[in-house]
Specification:
single chain, about 210 residues, alpha/beta, Rossmann fold, Arc Repressor Mutant, subunit A, 2 domains, 11 helices, globular
């Protein structure tokens, strides 16, 4: 049985991943934490075969968590599970020591294969990012920011426009005829896709790249 520690700041998402696996799959999400700072203490308490970790998290992100584990002398293979397809994130995680990189829209079959390979210290890259990696290795760096902006939906761009104008969630909801909950969901998804940590970074990025 491959024992997995899942590190993701969305508890419900973590529980959803845990529920995917049955004993017959040979994989168990044995621990879940929403805080990367807790990883060392969990590894001291329990034998973990693979760490499945998001990149964008509060307190300490996935890159920082990998650095923390190195500093404390832990050597557990890490599989990044993220929404980010941009090469700059892939490069940073690989340089940080990640063994694999898989997207959150992966199927159970893909995730199973990824966990199995990483547990054997083999590399795994989600099929959607294979071309980006090969192009990068060939020296074709592409346009990372263009790739990031290309991930945005028309609705998300409308939300960004409202944020740049200084509207709060209620005002955005009234303007776009959607609920405040939907506005907050869009804002969270936008932050993840663009890799920004707060509204100020989002506004700066959006103005620099001409999103609005």
């Amino acid at each position: 049985m491959i024992k997995v520690l899942l590190v993701d700041d969305h508890q419900l998402f973590g529980e959803g991943v845990r529920s995917m696996f049955k004993p017959t799959d040979g994989i168990e999400i044995s621990r879940i934490t929403t805080n990367g700072h807790q990883i060392p203490s969990i590894l001291e308490e329990e034998k973990i075969d693979v760490i499945l970790m998001d990149i964008s998290m509060p307190n300490i992100d996935g890159i920082g968590a990998m650095q923390l584990l190195k500093q404390k002398g832990f050597d557990v293979p890490i599989l990044m599970l993220t929404m980010h397809q941009d090469m700059k994130y892939i490069k940073r995680t690989l340089e940080g020591g990640a063994q694999g990189y898989i997207l959150k829209d992966a199927s159970k079959q893909e995730l199973t294969e990824a966990i199995q390979k990483v547990s054997r210290r083999e590399n795994y890259f989600h099929p959607k990012i294979n071309n980006q990696i090969f192009n990068f290795l060939r020296g074709d760096k592409g346009s990372s920011d263009v790739d990031l902006v290309g991930q945005l939906s028309d609705r998300e761009k409308e939300i960004i426009g409202c944020i740049v104008k200084g509207l709060n969630s209620k005002a955005m909801a009234d303007t776009l005829f959607i609920s405040e909950h939907t506005v907050k969901t869009h804002r969270r998804n936008i932050m993840h896709k663009l890799g920004v940590k707060n509204t100020a970074e989002l506004v700066t990025f959006s103005l620099e790249k001409g999103i609005v």
